[in-house]
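Notebook entry, structure prediction.
Reason for the run: the old model in the group folder had no record of what sequence produced it. Starting over properly, with the input documented here first.
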Amino acid sequence: MPLGLVALAMGAFGIGLTEFVIMGLLPEVARDFAVSEAAAGWLISGYALGVVVGALGLTAATTRLPRKPVLLGLIVLFIAGNVLTALAPDYGIAMTGRILAALSHGAFFGIGSVVAASLVAPEKRAGAIAIMFTGLTAANVLGVPFGTFLGQQFGWRSTFWVIAGIGVIAFAGIAALVPAPSGVQERISLRRELRAFRSTQVWLSLAVTVLAFGGMFGAFTYIAYTLTEVSGFASGAVPWLLVLFGAGLVGGNWLGGRLADRRLDATLIAFIAALVVVLVAFALFAGSQAATIAGLVLMGAFGFGTVPGLQSRIMDYADGAPTLASGANIGAFNVGNALGAWAGGVGISMGLGYTAPVWIGAVISAAGLVVMIVAALLAHRARGRVVRTARRATPATTRTVPVPVV
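New structure, fully documented this time:
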């Protein structure tokens, strides 16, 4: 395994940590800035918006620049955002720090996916992307519980100082371990990158990302309420149950990457279909604690198991200019997050109960499955047309007429 993938995974770990750890620290942040918890929650929404803007804007602005220096610059922006958040004297400055850090998120994962894929053979690139995203899953399993504990014991600002330190380590790792491209490199223009969006398959892939992943995140956003109000777990058990969910993320990410390298579309269809089944079963049997535990692990596994394949697929169809399309797909993940969270919240506000987000998530992911099946069928037909055209263009083999022996 190229060591550069480890460095990229460390950057992904820090970025994943700064995205998710704030959820466990909202009460402390709200008290410190004397704002309501709803207002503190905008630190999450503002971050998500910053991810989408950075995924498109920063990626587009840096298409003509060498990718390794761009990654290092994004890590510097990430460090600066977290330092500003840790030092923030008021809510407005904290929000500014969160948005600065978020701007690096989408561009880092978008460009980092392209760099990770370039470090291995073409048939192994989904696995390489999965290794980089292991940092993000590890942030959920290990980083978020530790970061929450640290913030509760030593103040929420201490967590963001530690995250900034992780950013420094990631910067050093990328600088030392990610190789700079050798030889004369082709300059990629923004026009060429934008041309990738002429592909129907690129848009279908983005739609699958929004819907399939959004369905899972919609169920996950309100999972604490489902666990305590429906499944009957004590609130103190929720963090440990989320560790199980995170373990599912890690396993699904690894397995999804390996299988996607073998059969990309078939793997995505199978994982999304399994996710829909798991969400339906979760909603039906949420009153059983044993079934809920199994559902948490499987929801994380099948939900995040789609990520390497979805990221690899959009790069496949980006017509030799995958950077902006890759960044757009990171933005699509966050659009899906927002869609799922909003739809789940609507279900609860309508009085449908705390399993409503899970049911709604199943419907959204099912829509993603339909789009994925359509995309796979169109891709299969297109390959068939290419093969038939190639056969017609190949001259027929000249027959050898046997000469009779006299």
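Summary: The two ends are 68 Å apart (CA to CA).
The old model has been moved to the deprecated folder.
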